[in-house]
């Protein structure tokens, strides 16, 4: 693998930008998964499970057709949009908690399960990870409205706050799969693309100890960057959120901070999407099956498949660095202790 560019300012986790390190292999837990409900939509929650408890349970799969309006989903052949995750449903949480809470914010026109390669990994290392559906600008909304004005709804900030509140309440209740599972106190937040900008904004809250911005930045940078430890990651070939935007935002962020650039990686290097229907047209086959005149920037076409080409960093190589560095950052500042 080509060299990974790393920049840092202030104290931070070691092994930045490397696929080798203490978190390069799955953690001591398996990942369980459950779905919670907010008034505005569902929240996917991954949590630590004792490995022995997961034996005999099938891994959970998702299908991108479930985010399409029914008439459009019917055009997509079965299996084209399916992905098997590393999580197990219906499995009791590990009694070795409570565990720190991490929020995950998906990107524009995306979906809450978009980065299970990372969310399940974090659960294996002793985190409860909650990812809400942003129903005003997710994959479903795009194909429902096809460019029309999106529906009114709560801001991403409010959805993330409602998610944190709901998961904490479920834990405090002492019942259900999340009962007693979430450690009180500080939380972390990870976001991709627009979700990364959401993470930066949400990190201004007092309970947030650390934030991770994946392929996220703006030029000029946000004016109110939080004085919190941060990790910024970008792909050198990102054509959607340009590396220069990420670098500018990183440069303006207060320390301690770290910047990692993945060589030849594109925008989707931080998601599951380059593995979906791999070798058979990828998610671009969904666009072909839909047979719509989709605009630039629409899901499954153009920049929305950026990073999945033959010249891009292979997913496994990118995942190895992302998992290692994000896990190290969160464990450094959330003191997972497992």
Tell me about this structure.
It is built from nine helices and eleven strands. The chain has 338 residues and is an alpha/beta fold. The two termini are 30 Å apart.
The sequence of SSEs as H and E is: EEEHEHEEHEHHEHEEHEHH
Q: What is the tally of beta strands?
A: 11
- Largest sheet, described in full? 11 strands, mixed
Structural class: alpha/beta
Low-confidence stretches: none
Order of adjacent strands in the largest pleated sheet:
1-11-10-9-8-6-7-3-2-5-4
Number of helices: 9
Give the helix proportion (percent range).
25-40%
Residue fraction in strands: 15-25%
For the termini, the CA-CA separation is 30 Å
Label the overall shape: globular
Average residue pLDDT: 93
Give me the Rg, rounded.
Answer: 19 Å
Tags for this model:
single chain, alpha/beta, 11-stranded mixed beta sheet, 11 strands
In short:
Helix content is 26%, strand content 24%.
Set out the fold topology:
Layout: E1 5-9, E2 29-38, E3 41-50, H1 51-54, E4 59-63, H2 70-73, E5 82-89, E6 99-105, H3 116-124, E7 128-132, H4 139-145, H5 156-172, E8 182-192, H6 194-202, E9 208-214, E10 230-235, H7 243-252, E11 257-262, H8 284-290, H9 315-334
Parallel strand pairs: 2-5, 6-7, 6-8, 8-9, 9-10, 10-11
Antiparallel strand pairs: 1-11, 2-3, 3-7, 4-5
């Amino acid at each position: 693998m080509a060299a990974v560019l790393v920049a840092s300012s202030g104290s931070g986790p070691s092994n930045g930008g490397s696929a080798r390190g203490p978190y390069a292999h799955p953690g001591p837990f398996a990942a369980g998964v459950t779905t919670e409900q907010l008034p505005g939509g569902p929240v996917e929650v991954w949590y630590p499970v004792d490995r022995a408890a997961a034996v005999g349970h099938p891994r959970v799969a998702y299908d991108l057709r479930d985010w399409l309006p029914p008439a459009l989903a019917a055009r997509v052949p079965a299996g084209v949009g399916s992905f098997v995750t590393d999580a197990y449903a219906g499995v009791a949480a590990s009694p070795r908690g409570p565990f720190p809470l991490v929020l995950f914010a998906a990107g524009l026109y995306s979906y809450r399960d978009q980065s299970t390669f990372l969310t399940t990994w974090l659960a294996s290392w002793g985190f409860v990870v909650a990812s809400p559906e942003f129903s005003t600008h997710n994959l479903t909304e795009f194909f429902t409205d096809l460019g029309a004005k999106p529906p009114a709804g709560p801001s991403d900030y409010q959805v993330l706050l409602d998610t944190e509140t709901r998961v904490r309440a479920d834990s405090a209740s002492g019942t259900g799969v999340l009962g007693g599972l979430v450690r009180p106190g500080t939380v972390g937040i990870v976001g991709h693309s627009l979700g990364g900008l959401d993470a930066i904004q949400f990190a201004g809250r007092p309970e947030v100890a650390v934030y991770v911005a994946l392929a996220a930045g703006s030029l000029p940078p946000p004016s109110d960057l939080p004085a919190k430890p941060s990790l910024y990651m970008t792909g050198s070939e990102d054509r959607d959120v340009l590396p220069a935007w990420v670098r500018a935002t990183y440069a303006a962020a207060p320390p301690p901070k770290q910047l990692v650039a993945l060589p030849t990686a594109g925008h989707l290097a931080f998601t599951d999407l380059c593995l979906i229907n791999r070798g058979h047209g990828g998610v671009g086959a969904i666009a072909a099956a839909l047979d719509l005149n989709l605009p630039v920037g629409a899901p499954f076409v153009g920049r929305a498949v950026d990073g999945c080409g033959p010249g891009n960093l292979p997913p496994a190589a990118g995942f190895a660095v992302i998992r290692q560095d994000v896990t190290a950052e969160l464990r450094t500042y959330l003191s997972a202790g497992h």
